[in-house]
Write a structure and sequence with these properties.
The protein is mostly helical and 146 residues long. It contains 6 helices and 3 strands. The protein has 2 domains: 71 residues, Arc Repressor Mutant, subunit A (Orthogonal Bundle); 65 residues.
Amino acid sequence: MKLQKDTLTRHGIDKTSRRLLETIVRCYPASIEIGELSKMIGVSGKTLKSSITRLRKLNIPINILHIDPETRIKASLKEPIYWMTNAKISAEALLTQINEIELKENKTVNKKKLILQRMYEEYINELNNLFDKWNALRLIDQLDDD
């Protein structure tokens, strides 16, 4: 199985949006003016604004700063938490689908289903344990933007 690191880092969004997020994270804690950012990633201002709109509709945490006369964008350190939360939600949905696979007389299929169930249940349990620990320590809250 060949993995594409760039796509997997932030899967489900277009290339321009990925490049936007990668660039603002690299510049953190500084903010970047929209025109400058569009030049940095090689897209028009209109394309960049469309990407920002798409990211906001997906509830991906980013900071838009309106400092007269310009608009600036700044990374949010909660953005990586967004992707971890989505991975957990995705795993839970896949486990539901795996659980719906009916056991047949085919022992090989039954064994594979049970293996997948175990793997996903353990994965989800570990993620739940991590989120519980992080919440108890208020680590995620400490990432709030100032």
